Here is the input.
Amino acid sequence: MDKLRMMSMDNVQMNVEKIQKLFPNAVTEVLRDGKPTLAIDFDVLKQELSAELIDDKEERYQMTWPDKKKSVLLANTPISATLRPCKEESVDFDNTQNLYIEGDNLDVLKLLQETYLGKIKMIYIDPPYNTGNDFVYNDDFRVESEEWSEMSGDYDEQGNRLVQNTESNGRFHTDWLNMIYPRLKVAKDLLSDDGVIFISIDDNEQANLKKLCDEVFGSLQFVTNFIWEKGKEGGNDSSVMRSHYENILCYCKDINMADIINLDRKDISRHIREDKENNLVAGITNSQNVGELYQLINLSKQKDYTVRVPLIDGSIIEWPSYAPQKTIDKWIKEGKVFVGEKRVPYIKSYLKDELQGQKPSNIITQTYGTTKAGSIEMREFFGSREFFSYPKPSVLIKRLLSIGSKKGSMVLDFFSGSATTAHAVMQLNAEDGGNRKFIMVQLPEKCDEKSEAFTAGYGNICEIGKERIRRAGKKIKEENPLTTQDLDIGFRVLKLDSSNMKDVYYKPEDYSQGFLESLEDNIKADRTPLDLLFQVMLDLGKPLSAKIEEKDIAGKHVFIVDDNDLIACFDSDITEDVVKTIAQMQPLYAVFRDSSLSSDSVAANFDQIFATYSPNTTRKVL
Here is the structure.
């Protein structure tokens, strides 16, 4: 049996392996911690990629800032953390496909890489805008907690993680870029090939964010900068001008595969109105099915050709046409040519065909919500209290979802805040019958003790976000009882924590033989079997929303994930009957604790049992 890695992906080694496939001569071996490891010979790689070598001191077009190299290393460094399930704070834990994850979003993104690599269709984030009052993540773990305590607005179990980035800080833009860069770099890998990311930002960092995204995603993957009209009154947050808009940068993973041309009913109505002003003779708009909407267009709106159109009585009329005879004959066969009472021919033009490829506007008007609407929406759930200063309205995110997602898409927001994205996903699913799934990630920032949220009993932002999802889901179901019977309004709560494994699991060379003998187990004492299961699921790349069944086999507690895809038993004293029963179920993976077999005899027969009943099962231990 092989041992599980129980760490996030090593992005450096993954990238080295990609380069090795293209340029094997540029890859060599070096000793790292006494072990041979693949590494890049950059001199050779430069020769392969250019007819001319670029000197390190030569000026070139690039975006850089202090500590940028550290940000790259931070994005690529693997971690040995885990996500622990919290059933008591979840909603419909056993059946939901949605996730709410508490913890530092960079660490969470790294842990999600194995499972969700290339599987996220749409990402929306609303990161700190860096206005001088925002808190940004502090990723420098070398700084002592006491040093940050005077500056920090919040902290978690790993030490202070949020610091206020004031304009008096000499690293004002640098600190913000060092925060956002590694998170976007890791998030890019999670996007599917046809995936898209939307990033809300104001003018303080819009220019820097645009350049940074050009580097992370590629300038050719830039879609547009959506301008959201956030309110008539505007914001008085500038000493010079009142701000009436915010930016939403949009990038694709691969612009050639992007599918971001969806139109909602508001767009369709607008196009119908426009067509009435231009060549529309009659609009048939009484159908509720968008695919059945059509227009009757006069064949002679442009007189470029003369065509022959047969009538029911066998006669033929000649008529000026904007399309050639070949096209008219094709439309006649398809039943798209209609001749009126005055022997005037029309084309029945279906809206779905007319608007195929139609792009949405990059101006998002107040029709799709304002900052005031976002505040009102929060008050509807929590009363008159102001928990968030400028929450995004769900109708805005729903608009982005209609552009960037499909009915079965997975949607990620790793600056979840008030959980508007989760609300919008559930609302749009209720309206179009979709089955979008959401993954919300949020650091459990503590609420200020003087805040209305704290007074109302909410200790941190995550508690507000989870409650907002609960109340929004309930409201959506109550308002749409006939169409939301199968709507998923649940979510599994997972919390970032240190690994379930003791340090000896990762660094056995650091411990003496005497110390090893004193260890009865390599698993921390406070961890449950369900904790272990989720770390195994992360390691094996199993969806964290996978169906989990629990079963008793010969007195042992067994987890069955995704209908025998993974079977895990973390009990001790595993007998041959348990091993045989699990093998007969023929799982893809079978996982046990290290040294959990009841006797040497069972250990000796273990591989033979699987070879007999399920030779293709991959056996792992932790």
Remarks:
- Residues 103 and 476 are 28 Å apart (CA to CA).
- The radius of gyration is 29 Å.
